[in-house]
Amino acid sequence: MRKLNITELQRLSVDEFKQSSKMPLVVVLDDVRSMYNVGSVFRTSDAYRVECIYLCGITGCPPHAEIHKTALGAEDSVDWLYFESAEDAVEDLKRRGYKVFAVEQAEGSIGFPLPDDFMSDLPTGYAVVFGNEVKGVKQEVIDRCDGCIELPQYGTKHSLNVATTAGIVIWEYSKLLHGEL
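Request: output the structure for the sequence above.
Response:
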C-alpha cells in the first residue's frame, strides 16, 4: 500500500468546485463562537460539496485568520451567507422549500443513523442547524424547524464538539443523498 501524493488525488480547483453540482444541504451555524469550529465546518462542507453555509449571529465570517487556519482555503470554495439571526436564516430556507432540522437533544428527535425513508420526499433541499458550543440550538430556532435530529452518545458528556457533530451529520446526509451529486 502506498500513500497517494497530492496530484494523484485529482481534487477540483476552486473554480471547478464552484461550477460542480452540490449536495442539496445547507449548514446553518448559529452563534458558534470558535473560529476554529467555523473553519472546520467549512473544510468538511468542501469535502462533501455542501451547497452553502449560513453563518448567523456572533458566528465569525471569512476572511478571518482563525477560520482560514482550519478551513485551509475551503472558505473560498464553499458559498456562504450571513444572517443576523438563525430565525431569519430558517425562515429564508423554509420560504425556499427546504426541510430544516436542528441538531439537538429534544423530545421526539430522530436518532442516528437516520432511517432509510428519512428523505423519501426530496424537497428543494435540506438544512441542518448547529448551535452554540455551550447553549446549543435556541428553542426559538427549534420552534421554526421541521424537527430535530440527535446523535446517540454513551459517555459522561452531554454533547460533542460542534465541528465533530457537523462532520458526522454531513457524512450521514451524504450517504443518504449520494445519488444526488
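Residues 162-177 form the longest helix (16 residues).
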